[in-house]
Amino acid sequence: MPVYQAPVNDTLFILNDVLGLERYGNLPGFADATPDMIEAIVGEAARVAEEALFPLNLSGDKQGCTRNADGTVSVPDGFKQAYDQYCQGGWIGLAVPEEFGGQGLPYTLHAAVGEYMSSANMSLMMYPGLTQGAIAAIIVHGSPEQKATYLPKMVAGTWSGTMNLTEPHCGTDLGLLRTKAVPQADGSYKISGQKIFISAGEHSMTDNIVHLVLARIEGAPEGTKGISLFIVPKFMVEEDGSLGARNTVACGAIEEKMGIHGNATCVMNYDEAKGFLIGAENKGLAAMFVMMNEARLGVGLQGLSIAETAYQNAVSYARERIQGRSLSGVKNPDGKADPIIVHPDIRRSLMTIRAFNEAGRAFLLWTALKSDIAHRSPDEAERQNADDLLGLATPILKGVLTDKGFDHAVMAQQVFGGHGYIEEHGMSQYVRDARITMIYEGANGIQALDLVGRKLALNGGRAVMAMFKEIGDFCEENRGDEAMVPYTKALKKGLNDLQAATMWFMQNAMAKPDNAGAGSTDYMHLFGLVTLGYMWAKMAKAAQEKLAAGDAREDYLKNKLITAKFFMEKVMPETVLRKARIEAGAESLMEFSAEAF
Ligand SMILES: Cc1cc2nc3c(=O)[nH]c(=O)nc-3n(C[C@H](O)[C@H](O)[C@H](O)COP(=O)(O)OP(=O)(O)OC[C@H]3O[C@@H](n4cnc5c(N)ncnc54)[C@H](O)[C@@H]3O)c2cc1C
To answer: What is its EC number (predicted)?
Structure first.
């Protein structure tokens, strides 16, 4: 049977020792997040993930969701009870401001516990996950009445949320969308059209579903400039807050898909459904981006979370599976063979996944902290810097952690040999579930284009300069520290490659935009490598300081340093390859005519 144990010690090390959450006591909500409180919350989240969510992961995958003849959708057995337990624990509102019924704690903490929940059961966690994104959009763009009507129920989890962008002919290019909104005399709109691939679009776990829908108001301009955002509730909400008539939005079908079987991916038909404008007319895409940016961090988190579960299972199997003898002499003399964990090539896989996961966790929490600072700091300069870095990090986190999440789910599956390919050990599910994270919330190719085409040049390159400065300053500050040289040397080299590639884009992509498109995915991964390398250097520094101070976690901290060394020696050299590919430009990609393929 699959195993999962939430990596509580690692989370606490990052939050307390690497990021020093205590230092941010001036931010709203942070004063309550004392180390004791953090430990208690993270510990409780681990318990919920391991005991309530994880046992339903395999069965949820096998059973999947069903659309019934009456158009309702049934979710796997046990999901409703586990969902209720999750909501009753207040997890949806952990970081939501108290005025909307949340607990107002740091978003960083929300991200930390979100990893566990998603590792334990990604499909189930997508139901509240979509709600959290919708809550964020309503907080920023909703009217006071909309906030009062929807937020308390959504934060409590008795109502859920969805995001409706995709249509059959339009996914990435939302300017093509056709769903139409016709203004009514009472100020509402009649929404008509079809949305596809809508996660958690219909299900039986909540009393109401609040759909956030992109549509074009009659007469609005073509393209992205004419898109507005609407709230379309499944059941109308009466003045006193009670539920009224069923709205004319219905699930036409659920998709048969490769993974995340426990999450209902729905075709949603809007047939003059009553909707309410949220935010300004024709500014719907900007409003939806609040939800999408939050969701992109959530999807990056999913990539990490699956890789972590896959890793833990691969380690457990590698310790027990007996095949062959160690190259350096017998390690298991009482057995007919040694456990495969002795083989360097198996260790290559395990160390690679581990090194990415631990740095990925630090990157996720570092980014989440930037989000907290950007939204809560009283200091404008600090807010702006954090917001710049958050915007820059979002496509990298989404693209890199999900590309690697899938690669590493496959790597972990490989440790099982043929036993990973059959369903018994659950490894096939991790591979299948991880695959979607590379596609939704903007396919990873689009994340790379967002980074190169938008984020690099934004505000005269302010964000990228701030990032280079932060990493460069770290290397400089530690220049005199002998023990840090193995880490800072490799990091500085990677940073040089990244800066050279950035310069190459500036010189070669303006005149020939295909150069930017051709190098974008390599650039996103190059940036990811340097950022993860930076996380490793920060973790190495914290581990060394703690060891020098006689910290009781000696084995854990020494293992951190070994993994940091592995990352610097075995992973960071990839920056050279990425830079070379970028600098090769677009020519060999673009020379073929379309017919020649
Ligand atoms: C299981 C599942 C759940 C989903 N959940 C939701 C949901 O809840 N709500 C929702 O609205 N949508 C949802 N989606 C839709 C998802 O976000 C889209 O599938 C995704 O954004 C890609 O759109 P598309 O499938 O139309 O692909 P296309 O847009 O047709 O893209 C096809 C390929 O071309 C590439 N491409 C497109 N344009 C460019 C370009 N200009 N330059 C370079 N490459 C380009 C893309 O990267 C991609 O690889 C879900 C999808 C799935 C499968």
So the answer is: 1.3.99.41
